[in-house]
Amino acid sequence: MRTRAAAVTKLGLLAVPVVALLALSACGGDDVATVPDGGGPRDLGGGPADLGPDFDAGPRPDLGPDFDAGPRPDSGVPAGACARPLFPADAPWNQEITGAAVDAESAAVIAHLDAVGWGLGRMQIDFSFHVQCATGAPMRTFTPTDDFYDGECDVAPVPVPVGGHLEGESGYACASDGDCHLIVIDPGTQRLYEQWRVNIVGDVYEGGCLAVWDLSRTPPASNRGERCTSADAAGLPIAALLFDADEVAADDIRHAIRFILPNDRIRAAIYVHPATHGTGGGSGRGASGGADSPPYGARLRLRGDYPLASLPNDYARAVARAMQRYGIVLSDGGNVALTAEDDENTTAKWDFDTDVRADATGLGPRDLDMIQPSDFAMIEGGMRYNWRDAPGCVLNP
User: Fold this and answer.
1) How many of the other CB atoms lie within 10 Å of CB of 243?
2) Are 369 and 122 spatial neighbours (Cβ–Cβ below 8 Å)?
3) 139 bridge partner residues
4) CA distance 194 to 171
5) Domain limits of the chain?
6) Residue 323 parent element (H or E)
7) d(CA 337, CA 118)
8) Mean pLDDT in runs of 10 for the chain (397 residues)?
9) Which of 219, 252, 256 is nearest to 339 (CA)?
């Protein structure tokens, strides 16, 4: 796919560019000509632990008695209606993994990943993902593009909030020719809409793969369907794995975190649950890593005795604690390791200025870059699936 353009966000009282050096994304699928035909697109219509003795919980930031999580601005929905964690508590990405067994391949995978490193050579944070929370937004139909994969993607009207915008854009036009994700949570219908490569200009709405998720129920192990993609290459819900400023300010991230790697560091064609899709393995595109590379869906857990006090601020420690308790899940291809939501629709802001803590230093894009692959273990992933095996994607009802 194509590189994502730079966006701007507030970090630590300073406006800085979000890194634009992203690798070719694996979002949505692989070479469209080789995606297995799952029998046609699904038409949805218009309806709706034990932490162990070495675990360091550390101090939580003092938000003060007047901190108000409040409603999201102009959302038209009650406070907390779109707050994380999304999905029921027993969804796999919402379950703690502090006591989970280590995978038999962990030592080899971590050694390899430590040798090649994270993308850009450090654990950096991308703050450009935009999630909209709206009930009653105008529903629009779209024309599928070549980035829509028949048999794997949903056909349904999509809520497009007035005055909103795509990831990395100021409006709904994909001017940067980037990934241009449209992510909308409708709490009224308990639906999460995620679509990539969206471009809306006037009355013309074109889009790539759409995945509509039912937030009211825990998905089966095969999520949308075995060997099926989503708006993310691994077939996972993006928004459920993003962390936002309110969660970090409250030191209350209760879900796994999305992470990405360059395609040559992801195991070709193979995935493990909770992922349901891989890339590469024959087309010359997508993942191209060898047998010691982590597969899509790999869940890494930060060691319980990691020296959290060595991190530069409480906000970095909040993210690290989540990586100890819930881990990070390999979800897509690219260079910037971790992905967060922007702060347009949260009460707390990424600069964490005077309304929250007078001594705030903020969470910077490189505040976790001292954390190395060798500080993690890969937890038990279970069965290895090849996304190219027959019968290909079969969407769940």
Assistant:
1) 22
2) yes
3) 159
4) 16
5) 1-44+81-129+226-397
6) helix 314-325
7) 6
8) 29 33 42 33 43 41 39 54 94 98 98 98 96 96 97 97 96 96 97 98 98 98 97 98 95 98 98 98 88 98 98 95 98 97 90 49 88 98 97 94
9) 256
